[in-house]
Specification:
Two copies of one chain form a homodimer. Chain A is mainly α. The first copy, chain A, has nine helices and three strands, in the order H-H-H-H-E-H-H-E-E-H-H-H. Chain A binds a DNA duplex through helix 6.
DNA sequence: TGAGATATGTCAACAAGGCTGACTTAAAAA
DNA sequence: TTTTTAAGTCAGCCTTGTTGACATATCTCA
């Protein structure tokens, strides 16, 4: 009885497994990997008196010059009060600048300064080293494979938005 | 001149790229993916008056019954004061229990209660659903491939430790 | 056995980075 | 002209991390 119709049985298992057997290994690896991934920049940020919140803002403004406050809030999913606290510091220390919108003068368009760009790049390179070295022998398809997986981890509703943001950042 | 020795040129590029061209796509995808990954449990944790810090503690105690405080601190890399705050709440609300060590009576061995195990499992399954569905057609090698990649993202010094923790959690 | 090391617990104070709610101002849109 | 929208600000709160100091029980080693 237990070894009857093995093909069907393993097919059912393949489906049930989604709900029945937790993927503890991936859950934990994701936790540890992300921790090391974000901790790389910490040392450098410290030297400037910045934290991870500043890093996130600097990163996205560097990547998308002219970003508005509303767009940035949408990306970070924090409140404007939280954003304002770190953004104010980035502006005061001259890493980011805020210009009045041209089409809509209520908007503030955000740009990194030269100094801001240098820091953003430095931090991105640091994270890139880890990310690329981990690809190891997965090349040449590895990168597409990993980015595809990460994209599918994102909520389906946001996936298109993120995809545009990540892969189409150069466009207008 | 530009199209001379293309093989060598692309080989050099392949190496230089590690330091020169930031992998913005992977950096950002990792950020968004991790955010959605950890946000799944939030709603449920809220119902119990717990946060992410409680989740992490509950998870690792569930996975490794009999864990000591020192071992848990080593996994989470937080101070004992921070740990104690959330651990105390988990114990008070009867999700975790602390027993005196047998070999060394200074130690406290941590165990989840039935209630604690149920919650840990519920949260793990929630995260497993996302993680496994994202594997999609990467099967059957997908899981090993992703876990290999995540493992290589971890600091080389900790890699063995994490590997034992993640893959050898059933053993004594 | 006694001294020192170790595992844990606790108190107090502080910081980063989230949050809510209320209110203002300037500019755009209806 | 009225209403809506984009942004800024004030005040206060929460969670989760930190440091520093100190207490207690237990183990280990000379």
């Amino acid at each position: 009885m237990p070894d009857a119709i093995p093909a069907v049985r393993s097919q059912r298992l393949g489906k049930d497994i989604l709900d029945e057997v937790p993927a503890y290994d991936l859950i934990e690896l994701f936790f540890f990997a992300y921790r090391d991934f974000v901790s790389d920049p910490d040392r450098i940020l410290d030297e400037y008196g910045f934290g991870r919140a500043h890093h996130r803002v600097l990163h996205f403004v560097d990547r998308q010059p002219g970003l508005t406050i509303a767009e940035l809030l949408d990306i970070l999913r924090i409140t404007k009060q939280s954003l304002n606290r770190v953004l104010k510091e980035l502006i005061e220390k001259d890493f980011v600048e805020s210009r009045m919108g041209t089409a809509d003068r209520r908007q503030r368009l955000l740009y990194v300064t030269a100094q801001g760009h240098d820091l953003a790049l430095k931090l991105a390179k640091l994270q890139t080293r880890r990310i690329m070295q981990a690809l190891a022998d997965l090349e040449p398809e590895g990168k597409a494979l990993i980015s595809g997986y990460l994209l599918r981890l994102i909520d389906p509703d946001d996936r298109d938005h993120v995809e545009r943001l990540v892969f189409g950042a150069g466009e207008t």
